[in-house]
Design brief:
Layout lengths: L2 E3 L7 E3 L18 E2 L5 E14 L2 E11 L5 E3 L1 H6 L3 E3 L4 E5 L5 E2 L1
Parallel strand pairs: 1-6, 2-5
Antiparallel strand pairs: 2-6, 3-4, 4-5, 7-8, 8-9
């Protein structure tokens, strides 16, 4: 699954097509209004916990399931704040802080 680190996104989301085989695990959410950077509304279908593997570390993280965001997972500022994301643009690397202050990239 392609992952986008989006520092302009407030919340993390995944396209509905990428979680179609586990649709029964999607939990309903009420009153969630999300818009794109161009102010277009995004239809939120629910919330699901996904498994991310980064540098052999498994991370469970809840994301919103959205309609039509492209076949990718967008990690927004909710993820970046929780895992202390540091992005080194010159080296094209990202670093995250997980349990016990351990850093992975």
């Amino acid at each position: 699954m392609p992952i986008i680190l989006d520092t302009g996104a407030c919340v993390s989301c995944v396209d509905e097509n990428l979680v179609a085989n586990v649709r029964d695990r999607i939990k309903a959410v009420q009153g969630m209004n999300v818009k794109t950077a161009t102010d277009e509304p995004v239809q939120i279908l629910g919330r699901i916990e996904i498994i991310l593997e980064i540098s052999h570390c498994v991370i469970l993280f809840p994301v919103f399931v959205a309609k039509g965001v492209g076949d990718c997972c967008i990690l927004g500022n909710d993820f970046h704040l929780k895992f202390g994301t540091t992005i080194d643009f010159s080296r094209r690397r990202a670093q995250f802080i997980i349990a016990n202050g351990r850093k992975i990239s």
